[in-house]
Amino acid sequence: MLKQASNNWLWKGYRVMLVDSVTMLTPDTSNNKKTYLQKSAQKPGLGFPIIRLVGLLSLATGGCVNYVVGSYQGKGSGEASLFSQLIESLSTFDLLLADRYYTTYTILALLLKQDIPMFSDKEVAVHFLAYNLIRTNLARAAMP
User: Fold this and answer.
1) How far apart, in whole angstroms, are the C-alpha atoms of residue 70 and residue 79?
2) Which long-range contacts (CB under 8 A, 24 or more apart) does 78-85 make?
3) Radius of gyration over alpha carbons of the chain, in Å?
4) pTM of whole model > 0.90?
């Protein structure tokens, strides 16, 4: 669907991609209980396992480009950690639109490595300044 989208749906030549996360309760099967954690405040065996889903969506088509599922808590289960698994789905023709949970310097460095710009609602000027500073220094370092 994304490849069939009209060029009229581009914003200043970019495909705008959105990233966000949601948590969901899963059925309390034995497999889900082993794979996904429950809230720590709950007694063992009560409640339902919780998953976190981080999705990459096309603004133009509304379609899901890619997603990753993980536990809602624990090492490597945060939005930014899970999103780092999706960065390879983006291209230099994409502009990432993200909320404040994705404005880490690690995410910016990973996006910079792939030459993907990002827009976010938190401290935009500071992050773009840092992004451009890193980009300029990398360009200078690559010069003979």
Assistant:
1) 10
2) 79/21, 79/52, 79/54, 80/104, 80/106, 80/107, 82/21, 82/52, 82/54, 83/19, 83/21, 83/54, 83/107, 84/110
3) 18
4) no
Over residues 7-23, mean pLDDT: 87
- In order of their start, the domains of the chain are 7-142 (3.30.420)
Rounded to whole angstroms, how far apart are CA atoms 70 and 84?
12
Residue 94's identity, in one-letter code, is D
**What is the C-alpha to C-alpha distance for residues 86 and 137, in angstroms, rounded to an integer?**
26
SS3 3: coil
- Nearest C-alpha neighbor of 73 from the set 10, 142, 15, 23: 23
Instruction: Give the chain's mean pLDDT.
Output: 80
- CA-based max dimension of the chain: 63
pLDDT in tens, 127-140: 555 666 666 666 66
